[in-house]
Amino acid sequence: xxxxxxxxxxxxxxxxxxxxxxxxxxxxxxxxxxxxxxxxxxxxxxxxxxxxxxxxxxxxxxxxxxxxxxxxxxxxxxxxxxxxxxxxxxxxxxxxxxxxxxxxxxxxxxxxxxxxxxxxxxxxxxxxxxxxxxxxxxxxxxxxxxxxxxxxxxxxxxxxxxxxxxxxxxxxxxxxxxxxxxxxxxxxxxxxxxxxxxxxxxxxxxxxxxxxxxxxxxxxxxxxxxxxxxxxxxxxxxxxxxxxxxxxxxxxxxxxxxxxxxxxxxxxxxxxxxxxxxxxxxxxxxxxxxxxxxxxxxxxxxxxxxxxxxxxxxxxxxxxxxxxxxxxxxxxxxxxxxxxxxxxxxxxxxxxxxxxxxxxxxxxxxxxxxxxxxxxxxxxxxx
Amino acid sequence: xxxxxxxxxxxxxxxxxxxxxxxxxxxxxxxxxxxxxxxxxxxxxxxxxxxxxxxxxxxxxxxxxxxxxxxxxxxxxxxxxxxxxxxxxxxxxxxxxxxxxxxxxxxxxxxxxxxxxxxxxxxxxxxxxxxxxxxxxxxxxxxxxxxxxxxxxxxxxxxxxxxxxxxxxxxxxxxxxxxxxxxxxxxxxxxxxxxxxxxxxxxxxxxxxxxxxxxxxxxxxxxxxxxxxxxxxxxxxxxxxxxxxxxxxxxxxxxxxxxxxxxxxxxxxxxxxxxxxxxxxxxxxxxxxxxxxxxxxxxxxxxxxxxxxxxxxxxxxxxxxxxxxxxxxxxxxxxxxxxxxxxxxxxxxxxxxxxxxxxxxxxxxxxxxxxxxxxxxxxxxxx
Lengths: 383, 383
Known about the structure:
EC 1.1.1.8 (chains A, B); 383 residues; 17 helices; Rossmann fold; homodimer; alpha/beta; NAD(P)-bd_dom_sf (chains A, B); N-(1-d-carboxylethyl)-l-norvaline Dehydrogenase, domain 2; 2 domains; Glycerol-3-phosphate dehydrogenase [NAD(+)] (chains A, B)
């Protein structure tokens, strides 16, 4: 869309937020005070997040319309650059084909250029790339920037686990919230009803801006003051999804699957609270907790590949099945299970978390998939 | 099995409980002090419960072997009485065909005779029959009897809702615990791994006897001191299962289903705590809470019929679909939704519980199935 057309439409922006009672309504006509949003990442979920955000920045006066989205440049089979294809068609033709992102989304292959003018940075890349990206951004972002992480996973260091929100805060020296929830990207892309949870550290006003940026009538966002709880839910649920997939592959039925999911939720809660005593029980009742666990264990890719792994009796590796089944998408559960196992080993907690431990032992080939239920007596004794 | 054979095997009973650390091990060789168990009810779940119980009374010294099971007498198509068929084949040929109940289960068509010698009464009938059954038992039970209810549902009286455990206690003047959980009966019948929760009022020793009676390596039972919380979980989850079924019938996807299940869990918790302030949040993390909700929303009959109802756009009634799809089993969700609606209306709480209210309005034909998601904005405003 041409700048003039954008400007004309901005005149019609809503001045209040219809569906979000937590926000004070304020008319922001001075464009210099409008928030400017950049999205770092453009995979399946990054593209859907950009679409959600762009619908709100376009509608609301408190944001600049344009959403700049960093794209790790690729050359498509046609010879066209991915960024050029996105900007020409307004679709991420590779990772979210068929969905218009909004004309105010601009794909940019230059990481530094993407973030230069932004005071709201949305991180949504595979977690293994986050440390490198943050290091490249040191000294390149605005002094008043705030971040939110949609990234699932953690970095395990010698001194212990480091959450992605902490990594961002430590390397860039800015505050970082998180957004997690029952959010299978393709369903949100077609605007089916769902919910999400923003976890924030201290500043309620910052949390409300993030809620405002993501909230739509079909995407209900709630904020809770518990960054670590929300982030660990989003991370650990992928380990439980592997367990649920094993149960599916072994055709053990719904009672068993529900029992394994419940035991998994219990270990998620216990693990999170051992690592961060500030984590709240109530967070596990939010969308990031029980709902994300349910949707991931019903339909997610970790569950799907784990089911195939169990059906094959563990004879085909996760790497092989992932390459065959996921068209280039990466499975986070297997690496998270390994990272969790490292934390458990290092701290002497293996016996306290038999489900988490067993999932890693199965996915790494040490135990057969049927071990997922055989550990149950250990489980009962340990709590 | 002949009495002599039973006696011989009793000599070999285990003197301690291998899998249940909460129990003190005591040798009870004096048969006069052994607990005697009767099961009132013999449907699908009642038959499975009798099988679980009979395996333990047979194995453990603290119980009489025989489990007497009251059967509402029917004449089978063959002309044989149902009780005769059960006692001849050791199977409930009508409600749980193909599963041996254990030779120490005795089907009895005489209600008073079933309970006469028992000090542990297990109630497991459709909830609408409970009041009549209890009234027939007044003065017919042992003075030292204890009860446990596996019945889902509640009676709505002018003065408010009455839980089944309270009904039993009030009419019979005995204490009553409850057992609820992620327990689709046919899966437990074939000994697939699952869990359940005993809710007890005050006496931990009583709770431990109930745990001992039901616990097997594939059926893990945990006790919590929260009768009302556990019982309301088992009752209210059927209302949420109808909502989940509507979402399935409308093909809205897993995010939406997970969101509706989470919102349902939230209303279950809020409703229970408004009715009984003693209800604990932690109960909803037990098998009776989140796990039962999951299994019921994945595979239960309320979900299944609600899915068909939504697929038909509400044009075929629940009564009609129930008769066609359930072979004589009864759907509890629809009547529970109506009863909950009556409580909400009577107390002025309808606006606080938009999901519960909407489920009843859909199942009674006042709203179309698609209303299940359209209420979402009300939901966000009300909490």
